[in-house]
Specification:
The chain is of the alpha+beta class. It has 14 helices and 16 strands. An eight-stranded mixed sheet has the order 1-5-6-11-10-9-7-8. Strand 15 and strand 16 form a beta hairpin. Bound molecules: histidyl-adenosine monophosphate.
């Protein structure tokens, strides 16, 4: 038997219903806050991601699905959406001609990670990217949107974690202090983190290894190194969030796994387990320039759809909605079956019938098993009548009604 690839899965039944609901709501909220949809390709030149996300990031180092196409070019399945949207933004010259843009996207992303609960190799994101605005007000408005959205889809008590990781002015001094501290404790770190001291010291701060966590507890705090403008930005953002009653907690160990962030980084957590970041995002003011555009600021986030679906799936809601009516039929001429179904559907009722010609008894068995409360009986006698022969399954009561009036009998 051919099976799905490891870390890739089918989303069906209840999960597909939840997916659809949260996607509809995401679109609704994104549009409410002024974002417009963009559909970007699933594949890009590998260089876009290595330059965009960062050569030393885990994603680029070990998680990309990269291959050569028939012309020998290195192509990568997108591991995230930001780099592709930035590529579009620069390619269309928006950085020069129309820099303020608010875009959203939905779709699958691919990362060659070790599959586990909430972590897949093909997973889905709803993301937004806002270009051309450098202001804490945008960050605050975005968090406002996210909290409204999470509440609307029924996520209870989302925890917003927020940090400011400085900019090109102040981060180097912090990196220096952090490296010096980590070198002193190198023996106590996991092998990955020992390597990261030189290549990507910030990432040591969010290592999940207990020993590394013990070391980082006493490490220098980025908050003590922020330059005046980052400090002001951070204070203004936190102040407005507090006054808007948007709950958040500062987490100085939140650094994010992609190298393009400056200043604000944030995540929303919910549910159990280590893999419980339901979304992540932040400011990336240098990314457009790094990818060949003008120095335009950017800010965005991506929601991990699979994790939201899992969380909502545990609530026991989202049972399948049965059709309103089941038609059990036995006809010589089959046209009235389609006519009656269509007449009922025109009245806004959803209708199911079995198109194979099984016996009436077996059709009623099926309707019973599915839990239909009402069945329309359609035989040659009823075929050309204006009225519908309706049977209530539990009492066995039968009535003849016109399609227009049928609704009041469905109680
Ligand atoms: P990210 O933190 O790498 O950020 O991914 C965002 C979210 O996608 C995560 O919080 C998580 O919920 C979900 N996610 C990531 N990897 C997996 C996986 N293997 N399986 C299931 N879910 C996963 C980004 O991708 C940035 N592009 C976000 C962004 C947009 N920043 C600015 N703009």
């Amino acid at each position: 038997m051919i099976q799905a690839l490891r870390g890739m899965r089918d989303i069906a039944g209840r999960e597909a219903r939840i997916f659809q609901m949260i996607e509809e709501k995401a679109r609704y909220y994104f549009e409410l806050y002024g974002y417009e949809e963009i559909k970007i390709p699933i594949m890009e030149m590998t260089e876009l991601f290595s330059r965009g996300i960062g050569d030393m990031s885990d994603i680029v180092q070990k998680e990309m699905y990269t291959f050569e196409d028939r012309k020998g070019r290195s192509i990568t399945l997108r591991p995230e959406g930001t780099a592709g949207v930035v590529r579009y933004y620069i390619e269309k010259g928006l950085d020069k001609n129309d820099p303020v843009q608010k875009l959203f996207y939905t779709g699958p992303m691919f990362r060659y990670e070790r599959p586990q609960k909430g972590r897949f190799r093909q997973f889905y994101q709803f993301g937004v990217e806002a270009f051309g605005i450098e202001s804490y007000l945008l960050d605050a408005d975005t968090l406002d949107m996210l909290v409204a959205y999470f509440t609307a889809i029924g996520i209870k008590n989302p925890v917003v974690k927020l940090n400011n990781i400085g900019c090109s002015q102040c981060r180097p001094a912090y990196n220096g202090a952090l490296k010096a501290y980590l070198h002193k404790h190198a023996d106590e770190l996991c092998p990955d983190c020992r390597q990261r001291i030189e290549t990507n010291p910030l990432r040591v701060l969010d290592c999940k290894n207990e020993k590394c966590r013990a070391v980082t507890q006493l490490s220098p705090d980025i908050g003590d190194f922020l330059c005046d403008s980052c400090r002001k930005y951070d204070e203004e953002l936190r102040d407005i969030l507090t006054r808007r009653s948007i709950p958040f907690e500062r987490d100085r160990f939140l650094v994010r796994g992609l190298d393009y962030y400056v200043r604000t980084v944030f995540e929303i957590h919910g549910g159990e387990g280590a893999q419980n970041a339901l979304m992540g995002g932040g400011r990336y003011d240098g990314l457009v320039e790094a990818l060949g555009g003008r120095p335009v600021p950017g800010f965005g986030f991506a929601i991990g759809v699979d994790r939201l679906v899992a969380l909502l799936s545990d609530t026991g809601l989202f049972e399948k909605n049965l059709s309103d009516l089941f038609i059990a039929w036995s006809l010589t001429d089959k046209v009235p079956l389609l006519e009656k179904s269509s007449a009922l559907r025109k009245c806004g009722l959803s209708v199911e019938f079995l198109a194979d010609e099984r016996s009436l008894k077996n059709q009623l068995k099926y309707a019973h098993k599915k839990g239909y409360r009402f069945v329309v009986l359609l035989g040659d006698d009823e075929a050309y009548s204006e009225e519908i022969h309706l049977k209530k399954m539990d009492s066995g009561d039968e009535v003849y009604v016109s399609p227009i009036d049928i609704r009041e009998h469905l109680i």
